[in-house]
Amino acid sequence: MSDTDSSDSIVMSKSKKIILMVAVCLGLALLAAVVLSALVLSSMSSSFSSLSPPPNEYVIDFDSLGESIYIRARAWGLAGNHEEIILSNEPIQNRHLEYFHDKQFIFLSLTELFYKKINADTLEVYVDHKSEEPPKFQSKVKIKQIELKDVDNASDMNANPEKYGLRRVSVYEGN
Which of 6, 65, 68, 108 is the most buried (most CB within 10 A)? Predict the structure, then answer.
């Protein structure tokens, strides 16, 4: 082996080491950027969710049956453009997009509904679009969904719910 071969091999090994060091540094920088981005997005997400107004919660008591119906209405998102109204026979504890379709009436993209107690055992719920009937919803209270498009005086009901004995549930505060 000549001196030039030996020096070429040393130079090659040094350049391989430099390339390896650069690759490791870039990998660590990329990993740090990903971790930092995840932390920033996580903190932004929690601060945005804390900016969302608290949900509007309603309890409708059916004293003669010894039961209550619970309603939660809320809007969330950066622009407040996600809405949900949940109707359940148990207090609604799920807070973060966790739905129990088998036990709760879930109305998504609905900003309000109206309700009226009928007799001692029925709750009429007036909505734009019906929710699926949850198969495991167990209550002595009968939930009767009525689509507003099927009601002749829907616009008057919306403007004057008290005139029809209706109560409004809204995702917006103060309604």
Answer: 68
| Pairing assessment for the beta strands 122-127 and 142-147 based on DSSP bridges | parallel
Encoding tokens for residue 146? 């009525």
SS3 154: helix
DSSP string, 79-128: TS-EEEEEEESS-----SS---TTTSEEEES--EEEEEEETTTEEEEEES
Task: Name the burial class of residue 163, with classes exposed (0-12), middle (13-18) and buried (19+) by CB atoms within 10 angstroms of its CB.
Answer: exposed
For residue 116, pLDDT beyond 60: yes
Nearest to 113 by CA among 68, 158, 59, 53: 158
* pLDDT (tens digit per residue) in 73-88: 988 777 767 889 999 9
